[in-house]
Structure to design on (72 residues):
């Protein structure tokens, strides 16, 4: 597994979280022709967010000047 910097990880978390919020907003707006596809995509992004969170929390223990996960 390639090592990823905590800064890069932080940016990836922010990007994934932004997409999760966008997909949730689409689903809440309703009237989607492809609602099942959007739900499946949202699930994939949520799984990815969980993996990134676990990795960030582990790396953050050894990093200086990086915010807690909940501050991202």
């Amino acid at each position: 597994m390639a090592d990823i910097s905590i800064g890069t990880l932080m940016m990836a978390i922010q990007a994934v979280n932004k997409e999760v919020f966008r997909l949730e907003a689409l689903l809440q707006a309703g009237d989607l022709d492809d609602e099942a596809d959007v739900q499946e995509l949202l699930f994939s992004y949520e799984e990815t967010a969980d993996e990134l969170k676990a990795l960030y929390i582990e790396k953050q223990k050894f990093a200086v000047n990086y915010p807690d996960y909940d501050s991202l």
